[in-house]
Amino acid sequence: MKTIIVCTDFSQEAENATHYAASMAKENTYRIILFSLQTVSVHALNAQASADFFYAQTLKNQKKLEDKAAELKRLYTVETQHHLASGNFIEELENCMQLHECDFVVMGMAEKTLEQKLLGNKVTRAIHRIKKPILIVPAHIEYTGIRKILFAYDTHKSMTWSAMNDIYYFINEFNAEVEVFNVSERLEDFTEVIHDMDLNSGYDLEDIKYSFKMIQSIEVIKAIEEEIRLTSPDLLTMVPYKYNLVESLFHRSKTAIMAYKNKIPLLSIPLNID
């Protein structure tokens, strides 16, 4: 049985992602771990609140998480557990993933704000730190199945077997059709794309419906958005490239940009290169 971790702070976007994940879990018999990170308010810190206050808050948060897990189990008939943590978000999420042997993570994404654009948020940090697939669900999107996947593929970035395994898992699990969509400044040769992906090596494509589309453009994000509009996929898949310090000064992650702008769920697949 696959295990998915659903991150929640009980905001509107987190609640929406939780029910999206629960619907997916019911369809595929997944186990859900509800992960929540409790934080201490500035007012409580300034007031030097007592240990009893913090203990009471922990019990309150634990009860809220337990109730949500019980609600999901009742509504969707899925195995549901919960994990309450405090501290650094990424570190605690990684601890939860290791403890529960997580297969992938689900997170909700709020509407883009100026603060998010300047500072980033937990979703964008997770994209570049977590070494498991992350499914990012925009607010107000309901789960209706995954029948068509758009895989935005960059031939100039290194692709690992672990990343391809994760992509093929989703294709096979949902019996989905996949379009491999490549955008570059120069029009790639079709055989070059096949060789770069090594798509046929180690996989049986007889039962997979797939197609390729390559276009020439310097505006990658706009091209992906237009392809989404034209093809109406249920899921966009991208593999974020890990820039070094110098590269990061001149490049913004296209995966992070699409996480902000995207109107459909985005599956971010890690390269898993240390």
Structural commentary:
The protein has 274 residues and is an alpha/beta fold. It has helices spanning 12-28, 42-46, 51-76, 89-100, 114-119, 122-129, 161-173, 190-197, 220-231, 245-248, 254-261, and strands at 3-7, 31-37, 80-85, 104-109, 134-138, 148-152, 177-184, 210-216, 235-238, 266-268. Mean pLDDT is 81; it is low at 244-251. Strand 7 (177-184), helix 8 (190-197) and strand 8 (210-216) form a beta-alpha-beta unit. The protein folds into 2 domains: 3-138, HUPs (Rossmann fold), CATH 3.40.50.620; 148-233.
Features:
274 residues, alpha/beta, globular, UspA, Nucleotide-binding universal stress UspA family protein, Universal_stress_UspA
**In one word, what is the shape?**
globular
Q: Helix fraction? A: 40-55%
Structural class by sheet pairing and helices: alpha/beta
N-to-C SSE string, H for helix and E for strand: EHEHHEHEHHEEHEHEHEHHE
CATH topology of the largest domain: Rossmann fold
Count of distinct structural domains:
2
CATH architecture of the largest domain: 3-Layer(aba) Sandwich
Topology overview:
Elements: E1 3-7, H1 12-28, E2 31-37, H2 42-46, H3 51-76, E3 80-85, H4 89-100, E4 104-109, H5 114-119, H6 122-129, E5 134-138, E6 148-152, H7 161-173, E7 177-184, H8 190-197, E8 210-216, H9 220-231, E9 235-238, H10 245-248, H11 254-261, E10 266-268
Parallel strand pairs: 1-2, 1-4, 2-3, 4-5, 6-7, 6-9, 7-8, 9-10
Antiparallel strand pairs: 5-10
